[in-house]
């Protein structure tokens, strides 16, 4: 694929993705993440599939499903495969130490969290620009909400301290997730207690899921100019 060429971090993303793809072994059930780093991972798994590696996969977005199908990778569902051996996905921010995440700038957070929750190992692939000391420092928390009554939901999110913006697509239309919902990007600034915030957001009526991934990460593969680093949850 040549679609990542405009991204100056693309080569680092590719290196992290290839390292993670190496963790996929014969016969595994694999969660396929979404976003540009995950796309490199799916591309690499497609190459290994062509060489004869056999596994099956549950994708976290229609886009990743389409890419996997284009390589002939076997896709399955939770109905036949309720447990996933390894889920490999990108992130928008990774908090040093806790390895808690913000995900969902690509809009796939709901399926991504369902797949991560069903996985024995959740491996995150990033370049080092994604590492932060505190979540929320650079990106908003994407929150998937029902379209019905969304302005009311937005008000309740603002009451929790967020500046809320409705996600639009590249054409300026309302962004619609694979589940048919919308995303409100909630700018909190640096989040002092992300676990508490997650609980508060979960209680807001109209919220379907949030991009805060707390206590889910098994390992982070970080690509830096000086080489790859592996961070494990302590
Ligand atoms: C999509 C996501 C992505 O994993 C996240 O946005 C990272 O994307 P990229 O690898 O393109 O930087 O959470 O919902």
What's the Cα radius of gyration?
A: 17 Å
Biggest sheet statistics: 7 strands, mixed
Mean pLDDT metric: 96
User: What is the total number of structural domains?
Assistant: 2
- Any guess at the CATH architecture of the largest domain? 3-Layer(aba) Sandwich
Q: Order of strands across the biggest sheet?
A: 3-2-1-4-7-14-15
Name the helix and strand elements from N-terminus to C-terminus, one letter apiece. HEHEHEEEEHEEEHEEHEEEE
Give the DSSP E fraction (strand runs of 2 or more residues).
25-35%
Q: Quote the distance from N terminus to C terminus.
A: 36 Å
- The number of helical elements comes to 6
Distinct small-molecule ligands in the complex:
ribulose-5-phosphate
Question: Which class of the largest domain in CATH terms?
Answer: Alpha Beta
Q: How many strands in all?
A: 15
Q: What does the overall shape look like?
A: globular
Secondary-structure-derived class: alpha/beta
Oligomer description: single chain
Helix content: 25-40%
CATH topology descriptor of the largest domain = Rossmann fold
């Amino acid at each position: 694929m040549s679609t990542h060429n405009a991204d100056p971090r693309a080569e680092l993303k590719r290196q992290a993705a290839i390292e993670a793809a190496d963790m996929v072994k014969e016969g595994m059930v694999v969660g396929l993440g979404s976003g540009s780093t995950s796309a490199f991972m799916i591309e690499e798994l497609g190459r290994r599939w062509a060489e004869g590696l056999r596994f099956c996969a549950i994708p976290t977005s229609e886009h990743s499903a389409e890419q996997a199908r284009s390589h002939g990778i076997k896709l399955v569902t939770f109905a036949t495969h309720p447990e996933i051996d390894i889920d490999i996905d990108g992130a928008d921010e990774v908090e040093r130490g806790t390895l808690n995440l913000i995900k969902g700038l690509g809009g796939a957070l709901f399926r991504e969290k369902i797949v991560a929750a069903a996985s024995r190992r959740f491996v995150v692939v990033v370049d080092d620009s994604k590492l932060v000391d505190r979540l929320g420092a650079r990106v908003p928390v994407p929150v998937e909400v029902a379209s019905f009554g969304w302005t009311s939901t937005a008000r309740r999110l603002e009451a929790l301290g967020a500046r809320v913006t409705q996600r639009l697509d590249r054409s300026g239309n309302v962004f619609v997730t694979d589940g048919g919902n919308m995303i409100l990007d909630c700018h909190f600034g640096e989040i002092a207690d992300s676990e508490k915030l997650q609980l508060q957001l979960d209680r807001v009526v109209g919220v379907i899921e949030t991009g805060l991934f707390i206590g889910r990460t098994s390992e982070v593969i970080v690509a830096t100019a000086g080489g790859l680093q592996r961070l494990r949850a302590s």
